[in-house]
């Protein structure tokens, strides 16, 4: 899961990024509105945490541009306490949730998890696909109810495929979500992780569609 953190105050940005990383998310940052707009317009994120008061272009303008360009990722805006017109404007502009500053990091993380779940169409913090269950609160993978030891990278890979179960995910998209864009891993590195996961979870769970990508099957209707 890739999250873009848009915040011009370095200490706040660092705090959010650290909490996201500790929860297994791939966090990237932008410190001004122009950079944020560009990243959100050209790359795929599962969620954006967007401060409204930003240099170069304010957060509301960034959000409006994304939405008018058809960018649909969930956006959580950070607003000044008591600034209710700002919140109303933000939600009208297409924000999915807001959090007034200053906030507790635990509350931010709870909202992040809820937004990502909702966006993927899952109401429960535990997402299942066949024998696999992904517990997004405890960051655990269970196979037939038994917890399996996986690395943070393996967890992110399984969580992403299960969030998108029933869809063939191209290797490029997986690599982007697992490593971020500044890391030029290749498809061989990805295949090595998949091979390890097949040993841990069973050979049938992650299907390879040669030339297309990887698939975790949706549950039968
Ligand atoms: Ca600010």
Supply the key terms.
22% strand, alpha/beta, binds calcium ion, five-stranded parallel β-sheet, Arc Repressor Mutant, subunit A, Rossmann fold, four-stranded antiparallel β-sheet, 221 residues, 42% helix
How would you briefly describe this protein structure?
This protein is an alpha/beta fold. The chain contains 8 helices and 11 strands.
Q: What general outline do the C-alpha atoms trace?
A: elongated
CATH-derived topology of the largest domain: Rossmann fold
Largest sheet: 5 strands, parallel
Compute the number of helices.
8
Q: Number of folding domains?
A: 2
Strands side by side in the biggest sheet: 2-1-3-4-5
| Rg from alpha-carbon coordinates | 18 Å
Number of strands: 11
Can you give a write-up of this model?
This protein is α/β, with parallel strands linked by helices and 221 residues long. It has two domains: 2-119, Rossmann fold, CATH 3.40.50.2300; 126-215, Arc Repressor Mutant, subunit A. Helices cover 42% and strands 22% of the residues. The protein has eight helices and eleven strands. The chain has helices at 10-22, 33-42, 59-68, 84-92, 105-119, 152-163, 171-179, 187-201; strands at residues 2-6, 26-30, 47-51, 75-80, 97-101, 126-129, 132-135, 140-143, 146-148, 206-209, 213-216. A five-stranded parallel sheet has the order 2-1-3-4-5, with helices on both faces. A four-stranded antiparallel sheet has the order 6-7-8-9, covered by helices on one side. Strand 4, helix 4 and strand 5 (97-101) form a beta-alpha-beta unit. Helix 2 runs parallel beside helix 3. The longest helix is centred in the middle third of the chain and has 15 residues, at 105-119. It is elongated. Calcium ion binds at residues 8-9, 51, 53-54.
């Amino acid at each position: 899961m890739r999250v873009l953190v848009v915040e011009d105050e370095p200490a706040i940005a660092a705090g959010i990024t650290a909490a996201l990383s500790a929860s297994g998310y791939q966090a990237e940052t932008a410190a001004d509105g122009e950079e944020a707009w560009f990243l959100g317009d050209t790359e795929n994120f599962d969620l954006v945490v967007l401060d409204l008061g930003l240099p170069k272009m304010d957060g509301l303008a960034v959000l409006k541009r994304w939405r008018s360009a058809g960018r649909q990722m969930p956006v959580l805006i950070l607003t000044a306490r008591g600034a209710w017109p700002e919140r109303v404007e933000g939600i009208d502009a297409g924000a999915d949730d807001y959090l007034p500053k200053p906030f507790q990091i635990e509350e931010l993380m709870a909202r992040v998890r809820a937004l990502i779940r909702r966006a993927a169409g899952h109401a429960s913090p535990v997402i299942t696909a066949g024998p696999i269950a992904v517990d997004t609160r405890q960051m655990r993978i269970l196979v037939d109810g038994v917890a399996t030891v996986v690395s943070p990278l393996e967890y992110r890979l399984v969580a992403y495929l299960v969030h998108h179960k029933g869809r063939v995910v191209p290797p490029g998209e997986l690599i982007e979500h697992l490593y971020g864009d500044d890391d030029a891993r290749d498809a061989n590195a990805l295949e090595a992780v998949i091979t390890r996961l097949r040993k841990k979870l069973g050979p049938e769970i992650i299907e390879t569609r040669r030339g297309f990508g990887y698939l975790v099957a949706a549950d039968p209707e």
